[in-house]
């Protein structure tokens, strides 16, 4: 309590009692009722059984590991290869999408920060932002139009004689990966841009004058500066891709599920909220664990994340 | 382009490719909105039409969802902008250690998958509702309220980031000066800090409205049995697509572009005014051009232009062209049929006359029941008969009359 008061008093002295009360109450409600308690109750829920309504709170309502056990071993005690496989596939695909985004966005962020000037730079910034004002669903829909069996790519490919049967890009997940790559480009460009912009141009020119080749300049001078930006962008892209629901639902092949779709099925089709919660907890823990591990590997802290 | 730091042809080419990837899908989608083909596509082009816009506005579920989305969006802006402001102010006041911890807590909702946020929200409020004995009609099970709660959780963090960026440039000595001159802390807050933050309030409000409007992952859980614009859209896309969605995209993109241009006009004007070069500038020094370049004028002009185009397009009658397409299709069908008949006739001519009877004694348990010849014994050529060998039947064409033909 004294700790809280010591936080509160300087604020009241600086901004006035009303403002300090407002800040305190708003942050308290936000942290407790919107962030912490919901996560805790989801965790609690995931350890419970899916009981009919009269039994809730009764003697049957006990804590159990059933929902987690189901994820690992299914109903029959065998290894639940289906669900585990989907989780692994989701993570691998998310890593893949993140890597592609880094590859695509690093050059554009560098160009934006150091090569483009004046009107070109302004236009580029607008051009980057405008597509992301379009609804996420519609962006996925655009890729469906592009990659469908009668879509533009198939008609061009067949018209030019590259292939004579329509290729099912949706089933092959090409559409899904392109759509996901597209969806989070902005979140990758701006962190890298912010980081690279801090670089003094003279350093690049000095390196050039000393005779360094282009890839060497990037590897030794630009990349170390860009690293926090890349880490921050990669974290966001990875988390959002792994947690994406709309794009896999719209662009995913019929037999290829994303892990979030499994969670969605437990909630909306099987009406088993407890098991859905358990799967959500698993997704959360695995994603956070994965990101923490990578942050440790690349020596970046979470404080550097944000736009 | 600045050559010294790696501009030049490669950079320009790469940028072009990059923006082609960014805009290509959107442009294609926009074009499909005007094709009369009932599946969204460019090739084959059928007719220019605006009927998909009518269909879009006639979609009642989508329009009902739009109303819900607007209500939720306004609510989210009204809550998350002040909450985000509070978070940013709290972060700028506390010590470094508390700051790091609080920042981590407040920023995690952005990183947590939206699905998880949605689930935790409905589970928490549902549990709270049950523990106070509320029934299912109460606020704890109301999709609109839950969506509001779930969205504010992470959208407030967006607003916070906007305010934090602005606060970094705030000079705290301004507040101190106000206090020294006898202002109360409350006055200093209202007269110094809030006006300084007001541009950030505008952009935070815009960002939060946009984020709320297009959120799907959280909303699809928290809205329960209700609908917002985005969830309706998603279910529509999942259950078959038609170009009315492209029409929607056209509207959104048009609004976006107009917004971007007006914003650009506004920032340029503000910049020129601030640096005091208005009199010398070509555009802003000229009285006519200066009025034309005013953001409001830009908005009016663009809206008028868009409205004019929309009106002109809505007068376009695609019926004649569609009839033409239909006729063409019918003609093509006729032609194909005719060709097929022609082929049949040719085949018939090449086939020796006793072909059908020869297949009579087929050594099969079906007793030749599958033999088309038995249905049309030697008379006029049944159209299906020659086609039979082509059908991938499980009998491998063994029952086809031709297969036993002694030639």
From TrEMBL, chain A:
UniProt record, GO biological process: transmembrane transport
Keywords noted in UniProt: Cell membrane, Membrane, Transmembrane, Transmembrane helix, Transport
Protein origin, superkingdom: Bacteria
InterPro entries (UniProt xref): MetI-like, MetI-like_sf
Membrane protein topology class: Multi-pass membrane protein
Subcellular localization, as worded in the UniProt entry: Cell membrane
Keyword 4Fe-4S attributed: no
ABC transmembrane type-1 domain boundaries: 87-294
One cellular component (GO) term of this entry: plasma membrane
Principal location: membrane
Transmembrane spans: 16-37, 86-109, 115-134, 141-163, 175-196, 230-251, 278-298
Sequence similarity: Belongs to the binding-protein-dependent transport system permease family. CysTW subfamily.
Protein name, as recorded: Spermidine/putrescine transport system permease protein
Organism listed in the record: Roseibium suaedae
From TrEMBL, chain B:
Location within or outside the cell: Cell membrane
Pfam families: BPD_transp_1
Disordered, as annotated region: 344-407
Family: Belongs to the binding-protein-dependent transport system permease family. CysTW subfamily.
This protein's name: Spermidine/putrescine transport system permease protein
Membrane topology, record value: Multi-pass membrane protein
Gene3D superfamilies: MetI-like (1.10.3720.10)
Organism: Roseibium suaedae
Source species taxonomy: Bacteria, Pseudomonadati, Pseudomonadota, Alphaproteobacteria, Hyphomicrobiales
TM spans (from-to): 12-34, 62-89, 101-125, 145-165, 192-213, 245-262, 283-311
